[in-house]
Amino acid sequence: MAGDTNTVLVADDDPTVVRKLRSWLADEYRVETTTDGDETLSIFEDADAVLVGHDLRTDSGTVVAAEIGCRMTAQTMAVLCDDQEVSPFPAVGAALEKPVENAALLETVDRLVRRARYEDLVAECATLAAERGALESRGDIANEEYETLQRRLDEVFAELDELVKTFDSDDFRAAFATCEFGSPAQPQSASERP
């Protein structure tokens, strides 16, 4: 799902890490970078996927990863950790242990971008279905607007079908995870729950 239209934000307090990750991602994604926590919080919503350093903080001391995890869909964020066992944040899409390896980075970002696309398509599907329902409730189904809505809805369903074929169990769990403090770093499967 890589492409020029997907934006990845790389935010870490180590400029060397930021430069390295940018160089690895730049061929496939539009990459925004920062080493500033406050700037990260002001721009992360424009990204399809966010890679944020575990220790990145704002000037006031807010842990950026925790704040982003509660303000965006956590499935589209990866935390860059010095140790993957250290992840006190709400459910996140992934954790990447530093030093990050190129293959793991590209695989993780691809996964996060696919999850973001899934989220966008589901939201569009809901909007289109509501618009179609409004037309149907008025008995207004024999017109071009209804046909256009139905055509786009069919296209969205087809794209969702194709996208879901690329998902594994972690992707499905992440798609339905919610942001709650104290939840595990990765959504648990039913068999893992007490």
TrEMBL record:
Pfam families: HalX. InterPro entries: CheY-like_superfamily, HalX_domain, Sig_transdc_resp-reg_receiver. Residues 7-113 form the Response regulatory domain. It comes from the Archaea. SUPFAM superfamilies: CheY-like (SSF52172). This is HalX domain-containing protein. It comes from Natrinema soli.
